[in-house]
Automatic annotation (TrEMBL):
<protein>
    <submittedName>
        <fullName>ATP synthase archaeal subunit H</fullName>
    </submittedName>
</protein>
<feature type="region of interest" description="Disordered">
    <location>
        <begin position="71"/>
        <end position="90"/>
    </location>
</feature>
<dbReference type="InterPro" id="IPR014275">
    <property type="entry name" value="ATPase_A1A0-cplx_hsu"/>
</dbReference>
<dbReference type="InterPro" id="IPR028987">
    <property type="entry name" value="ATP_synth_B-like_membr_sf"/>
</dbReference>
<feature type="compositionally biased region" description="Basic and acidic residues">
    <location>
        <begin position="79"/>
        <end position="90"/>
    </location>
</feature>
Amino acid sequence: MARPEVLERIKQTEAEADDIVAEAEADREEHIQEAREEAERIREEAREEAASMKEERLAEAREDIEQERATIVEEGEAEREQLEAQAERRREEVVEHVVDLFEEAVHAQT
């Protein structure tokens, strides 16, 4: 091969190598952009999932609180009814006792 042909071949090979490098750079940038977009999509999905889980847990906690409140109210009502029944049963006893105290006080004055 003559020297001009060798030089031309070298230039041609260098140009091909430059094209390959440029194409590889473009592919690299494209892959980086795709990876960034995928990462953002994953982050957004994670945010949405976290928000959904938060709402779900909050709803469960509210339900638990409502059940606990209902139980406390029910127990309180039952206890109130017991106290009212007990007070009603003792009413006559208390009235009798007060009348006895009143009569003693009246007899003590006479």
